[in-house]
Amino acid sequence: MGTGSPARCAAIIGTGLIGQGWAIVFARKGWDVRLYDVNAAMLAEARSLILQQLRELETQGLLEDANGIIERVHVAGSLADAVKGASYIQENSPEKVEIKRALFTELDAVAEPDAVIGSSTSSIPASQFTEHLPGRHRCLVAHPVNPPYLIPVVELCPAPWTSPQALNAAREAMTAIGQKPVLVRREIEGFILNRLQSALLHEAFRLAKAGIASAEDIDVTVKDGLGLRWSFMGPFETIDLNAPGGIADYCARYGGLYESIGADQGECVAWDGALVAALEDERRGLLPEEDLAKRRFWRDEKLMRLMRHKQENGDNNG
């Protein structure tokens, strides 16, 4: 995966929303992209859906020449055709171990010998579907955040047998296409992002069940409170700046408080029954079901504007 090649090639296996997103990420940075999906109907419409999103990104000023970019995206007639000449392969099949195990068996057999194979799985460690492969050393998880063309973090989580060379090649590829790779040093359920999100969600459900605050007020606390800082700083930098002497000073001042709060957060609240029904009633009162799709487009437009702001102000590395 040398940096000197004029047109690097990526294979995208599975062309649902995540696969389409990956195609955009690679193609907009000059890579040739080959798409393949066992679902012929999904594969047939993938390219037009990618072009539609590219044009929206162009309208928002986040890329130029959508029509030129889509010319780098090709539909392959077979899995073997898709991976031929590809230095990087991104798998996006359903979240089922047996499906991924079978697909990785095929990919390992037909991929170029030095190609790296990443999985978009959000929950399954690579060790569960790559252990049996002759080329297991070049396989790992490369978990994106949806949509990857707007949210650049990619969690790289190697299996115990993933080689340092493959991990470095994956990190180099992600950096080359403008993503922000983070290393999960060992396999753990949920990787990093979902574990952090899980902690916040569990507390949100606890507060709602206890009647401390409404779902809307909890959301406001995040979007107009914590989230404003978190859009350009992480939690450790946040507390590092929130005490005169930095993070050690913050821990000395507030460690006892957070230890006390943590002791009260040990028991998880079940996400079911009357609690979920009440939250569903509140959310549907704020946003009727028929307006969910429209609101998702609104969300993506907000993300585009935020991305543009971060690019223009040079804080996208924050």
UniProtKB/TrEMBL annotation:
GO terms for molecular function: (3S)-3-hydroxyacyl-CoA dehydrogenase (NAD+) activity; L-gulonate 3-dehydrogenase activity; NAD+ binding. It is an enzyme of class 1 (oxidoreductase). The keyword Oxidoreductase applies. Residues 190-252 form the 3-hydroxyacyl-CoA dehydrogenase C-terminal domain. Residues 10-186 form the 3-hydroxyacyl-CoA dehydrogenase NAD binding domain. It comes from the Bacteria. SUPFAM superfamilies: 6-phosphogluconate dehydrogenase C-terminal domain-like, NAD(P)-binding Rossmann-fold domains. Pfam families: 3HCDH (PF00725), 3HCDH_N (PF02737). InterPro entries: 3-OHacyl-CoA_DH_CS, 3-OHacyl-CoA_DH_NAD-bd, 3HC_DH_C, 6-PGluconate_DH-like_C_sf, 6PGD_dom2, NAD(P)-bd_dom_sf. GO terms for biological process: fatty acid metabolic process. Its EC number is 1.1.1.35. Keywords: Oxidoreductase. The keyword Oxidoreductase applies. Belongs to the 3-hydroxyacyl-CoA dehydrogenase family. This is 3-hydroxyacyl-CoA dehydrogenase. It comes from Achromobacter marplatensis. The lineage of its organism: Bacteria, Pseudomonadati, Pseudomonadota, Betaproteobacteria, Burkholderiales.
